[in-house]
Amino acid sequence: MTALKNDRFLRALLKQPVDVTPVWMMRQAGRYLPEYRASRANAGDFMSLCMNPEFACEVTMQPLDRYPQLDAAILFSDILTIPDAMGQGLYFETGEGPRFKKVVSTLADIEALPIPDPHKDLGYVMDAVSTIRRELNGRVPLIGFSGSPWTLATYMVEGGSSKDFRKTKAMLYDNPQAMHLLLDKLAQSVTSYLNGQIMAGAQAVQIFDTWGGNLSAAAYQEFSLAYMRKIVNGLIREHEGRKVPVIMFTKGGGLWLESIADAGADALGLDWTCDIGEARQRVGNRVALQGNMDPTVLYAKPEAIRTEVGRILASYGKGTGHVFNLGHGITPEVNPEHAGAFLRAVHELSAQYHE
User: Fold this and answer.
1) What CATH number belongs to 8-354?
2) pLDDT digits (tens, 9 = 90+) for 341-353
3) Confidence (pTM)
4) Can you tell me the distance from the alpha carbon of 355 to that of 348, in angstroms, rounded to the nearest whole number?
5) Is-catalytic flag, 282?
6) Of 7, 78, 127, 209, which is the active-site residue?
7) Is 31 one of the annotated active-site residues of the chain?
8) In angstroms, what CA-CA distances link 167 with 105, 106, 218, 325?
9) Catalytic residue, candidates 32, 36, 67, 155
């Protein structure tokens, strides 16, 4: 494989020295970019975009071509590819987000679920990873990803997005045996899926626990974190002669940083509700931190964006172990010029912290 021309993202995740704080954005390939909207129109729909490796590569590369400051590419895909490969029938309703043709509601439903083979059942994702990696040609590292078992389970039980997770939480409390079986199958599926991505060329992986923060403290430990820990323990951690860092991101998980830091990942993603300097004090040298600007700051003027970037950098302070990111994904209505101002500010303002 081609040698990396820019590896500061990987170095920061491993708490190695860097010249400036590396930066990327969750959902950096997405609807805020006109070139993405054009590609999606050409593909026909979102799933066609995801399932065609050439289109997935095209949209993965778009933000990198627009913003030379980006220090990583992230695979363009969707977190719900695994439930789809388990036979749930993923589709998208305009204005309503993801939906499933089948829902999981009983122990028998869960027992019937297969564990997908990443190469046979999700081969289009592996093909996308290898295609993107080839196209990157060592420009920046490629991030692979998956949803967490708990987050995937919520969609499978609810049949789509939910505001209160009533069906999923009812199963959790009424029938914990069924929920644990579902989460165990999902943990096995996510482990093999991420390992497949690593073998195909992903140089770091992130586990997105979007809905873990909606659980009680006790339920989070038992039904979310325990299964992410199981995944991390089963991942390939070295490939192509270098470490493959793992990032664990629980949105709303600020109360539990210490236990997340002990779960085996190399880095923790932070949402915008906690102070990154305080988070650094709490976790010490155990892990790197990724985050954590409020995505809605990007609606403000470039001067205000720059001020907020400076505040977060100052809060983290000197030294490595920080990957700058938003506290969640960039939103569709953001002006692309504002995203550019954000990325430039990170590199320009962070050099002083790496002397």
Assistant:
1) 3.20.20.210
2) 999 999 999 999 9
3) 0.96
4) 13
5) no
6) 78
7) yes
8) 8, 11, 19, 33
9) 155
